[in-house]
Amino acid sequence: MPTKEATAGPPPAAGEPAPGRPPGKDAAKAAGKATGVRHVPAGLLAAVLGAALLAALTFAVAWGSTDIAPREVWSVVLRRLTGEAPRPGTSDLIVWQLRLPRALLAAVVGAGLGLIGTAVQALVRNPLADPYLLGISSGASLGAVGALVLGLGAGGALGLGVSGAAFAGALGTFALVWLIARRGGSFSPLRLVLAGVGIGQFLTGFTSYLVLRAGDEQQTQGVLFWLMGSLGGASWDTLAVPALAVPVALLLLQARSRPLNTMMMGDETAAGLGVSPARLRRELFVVTSVLTGILVAVSGAIAFVGLMVPHACRLLVGADHRRLLPVSALFGAVLLVIVDLVCRVALDGEELPVGVVTSLIGAPALLYLLDRRLGRTS
């Protein structure tokens, strides 16, 4: 009778999943062993980030030109949530109508940028890829600037407004990049990146031309401020769509976390394990493009968040997308809430564009990550 060793068959080759184990789990585990880094438990990190987000939101609403005690902030929020009549005074107006929607929008946009960064880096299999690499943000910026310069900010003849025009520009760019990437019947990540970069640069140049054609200096300053990222236009109305889109995107991406893990082993191995890399990339492209258009429409172009957040989270929890995606969303939310608070209170009587602060943080972080990556491979 055959022995247990004889019936077990040969051990799996390097890079192949062990029998009876999900292939995505083996890929992520192998990537973690390759780095030689001990990671933080994802549940513990998520709990810490959740508490940090709650604290950041509290202080973001409490601090400003008029400071409000955190206890009063929560008192106003609880009264509103329970349907009680607001107390007379300015605290209710400041907390509920001005600062809370802005703080929540910062959290939602930060979470969305973290998700987009993680997905785009998997999409093009480049850990240094940025969410705006595909040119979608350039299309959104062109649409928004066109609406501002042409006087459609309040709705205009088409009823779009700045946000609607930005979203329309993002979708138009998405369609164009998609057609070029699909040329020849195949879907190539390299062609996708080249198409996105080329179209993005063209649209950026056209956006700069529209800025120069702006009718007055105040309008030009407003356009430039928006292009550098701003959450100053936050309201409960502008919060609604991104607050719905980001959780939906998280669920869609989380459902594809195992296929994303298999792609870490290469397209051929992923295809051998039953994953279609081309189909998965199409799905990722659609999700990231639509979400980018929604976020840029409400916040402008905020750089480096989608690049920094996935890298930081990989160092903490590893490359398994089942853990990486939700942790990246939480980390991005905390980061952007803090950055927006700094932008509001750093200068007395003035507000910094959010993109300026994220760039000041992101550029040194990128150099540090490059140094670590080159040092590891040398």
TrEMBL record:
<keyword id="KW-1003">Cell membrane</keyword>
<feature type="transmembrane region" description="Helical">
    <location>
        <begin position="284"/>
        <end position="309"/>
    </location>
</feature>
<keyword id="KW-0812">Transmembrane</keyword>
<protein>
    <submittedName>
        <fullName>Iron ABC transporter permease</fullName>
    </submittedName>
</protein>
<dbReference type="InterPro" id="IPR037294">
    <property type="entry name" value="ABC_BtuC-like"/>
</dbReference>
<feature type="transmembrane region" description="Helical">
    <location>
        <begin position="103"/>
        <end position="124"/>
    </location>
</feature>
<feature type="transmembrane region" description="Helical">
    <location>
        <begin position="192"/>
        <end position="212"/>
    </location>
</feature>
<comment type="similarity">
    <text>Belongs to the binding-protein-dependent transport system permease family. FecCD subfamily.</text>
</comment>
<dbReference type="InterPro" id="IPR000522">
    <property type="entry name" value="ABC_transptr_permease_BtuC"/>
</dbReference>
<feature type="transmembrane region" description="Helical">
    <location>
        <begin position="352"/>
        <end position="370"/>
    </location>
</feature>
<feature type="compositionally biased region" description="Pro residues">
    <location>
        <begin position="9"/>
        <end position="22"/>
    </location>
</feature>
<feature type="transmembrane region" description="Helical">
    <location>
        <begin position="224"/>
        <end position="253"/>
    </location>
</feature>
<feature type="transmembrane region" description="Helical">
    <location>
        <begin position="42"/>
        <end position="64"/>
    </location>
</feature>
<feature type="transmembrane region" description="Helical">
    <location>
        <begin position="158"/>
        <end position="180"/>
    </location>
</feature>
<keyword id="KW-1133">Transmembrane helix</keyword>
<keyword id="KW-0472">Membrane</keyword>
<feature type="transmembrane region" description="Helical">
    <location>
        <begin position="329"/>
        <end position="347"/>
    </location>
</feature>
<feature type="transmembrane region" description="Helical">
    <location>
        <begin position="131"/>
        <end position="152"/>
    </location>
</feature>
<dbReference type="Pfam" id="PF01032">
    <property type="entry name" value="FecCD"/>
</dbReference>
<keyword id="KW-0813">Transport</keyword>
<feature type="region of interest" description="Disordered">
    <location>
        <begin position="1"/>
        <end position="32"/>
    </location>
</feature>
